[in-house]
Amino acid sequence: MEDDRSAVTGRVAAAVVAAGTLATTVGVANGFGSTGPTIIPLAAGADLALAVTGQPAATQSPQTVHAVSPGLEAAKLMRSEGLVARQHVDQAIKHASDGYTARQAELKRKQEAEEAERARIAAEEEAKRPKAVKPAQGTFTSGFGGRWGTTHYGVDIANSIGTPILSAMEGTVVEAGPASGFGLWVRVQHADGTITVYGHVNEILVAQGQHVAAGAQIATMGNRGQSTGPHLHFEVWAGGSQKIDPVGWLAERGISL
């Protein structure tokens, strides 16, 4: 180790001396006529490294240094932050839109379910509702056909004054008021064109053009017109004009007198 250190030291000294000698010689050679000192490098980096270490210096590539503009860097940073913020806003909008769409879909589903339930209940109620009813409670006192030299075109059901009179089927009131021989009457037309007639009523509870359901009260029993006592005179006009026996018509619909 001591010998190596001495060898290196010797080489450094020799290189320095050689470089100094070269500098002195050049200075003397150019000294005549010179007005100022001439500075000459003692030795190139590669030569000095070779002299000192015995190895040539590694070649280094030149490095380029770029000038940095603070304003430009700030603008780039702001633009980057703006893009990030915009992405967050877009995501928030998308989440809100997706949530709104989901809520609307759920609301629509609930509304459709509620409508379906209402329709189901209405259908059940309609199925339970009678399609035909007995027009009044009481005693059957007279039937359809000849009577006392004339034709009796209906049936009579006797009971006390004020007994409810019901529409035998669903339909529309086509007349409600005074009638010859009946005092007061109500006529109801049904979907198939049939008209039912309710005569000798005491009080009318419906008006012309009114829609009534099967079993709806339309009047009360009375003793008006050509009547021998409180009763309902009930007729059935098939097709709106042909008077038929109400007993058979009611029986076809499950009603007996």
TrEMBL record:
Gene3D superfamilies: Glucose Permease (Domain IIA). Residues 151-246 form the M23ase beta-sheet core domain. It comes from the Bacteria. Residues 102-129 form a coiled coil. The keyword Zinc-finger does not apply. GO terms for molecular function: metalloendopeptidase activity. Keywords: Coiled coil, Hydrolase. It holds the Pfam family Peptidase_M23. This is Murein DD-endopeptidase MepM/ murein hydrolase activator NlpD. It comes from Saccharothrix violaceirubra.
